[in-house]
Amino acid sequence: MSTRHVLLGLLAGGPSHGYDLKRRYDDRFPQARPLAYAQVYTTLQRLVRDGLADVEGTESDGGPERTLYRSTAEGASELIRWAGEITPPAPFVTNEIFAKVVVSILVDDAVEPAAVLREQRAAHMARMRELTAVKTGPGADLTTVLSADYALAHLDADLRWMNTTAARLSTLTAEVTAA
């Protein structure tokens, strides 16, 4: 996910402080990788540097000084361009679980490949239960439900792959050890 474009999208609703942007990010993308405050402010500084955002002013309200940011016309155009782009499927398939299965075959009984798949399956199932509880819990809004559904679909695909791989493990072992 492009942090700069997400922040531009959040600024599209009007000028905001970094603190408010972070809070809205957490609300809108509840299952996404957490965004640190430092990353918010660093990204805002880059947006200003690149002409995609401006500093509208500062306020203190009796507390620390807070900078108010707003999107520029160039920022709005960039946001529209980015949102309209098709996100290409990943050009390379990198699967750490598959790498661990192959490596476990290579290390001759030090790690059992079937155990790798079983333990990973258990971890995926636990995460799926957590996400299901989040999306069906009290007060789950549509953003939370859709975000959890996205993660669940990916976990489900991983589980299907693990089942297929487990069924083909003897063939994979033969191929890996023969090479």
Automatic annotation (TrEMBL):
Gene3D superfamilies from the UniProt entry: Winged helix-like DNA-binding domain superfamily/Winged helix DNA-binding domain (1.10.10.10)
Instruction: Name the chain's protein.
Output: PadR family transcriptional regulator
Q: From which organism does this entry originate?
A: Streptomyces aureus
List the coiled-coil residues.
none
Domain Transcription regulator PadR N-terminal residues, every copy: 7-79
- Could you tell me which PANTHER family the record lists for this protein? NEGATIVE TRANSCRIPTION REGULATOR PADR, TRANSCRIPTIONAL REGULATOR YQJI
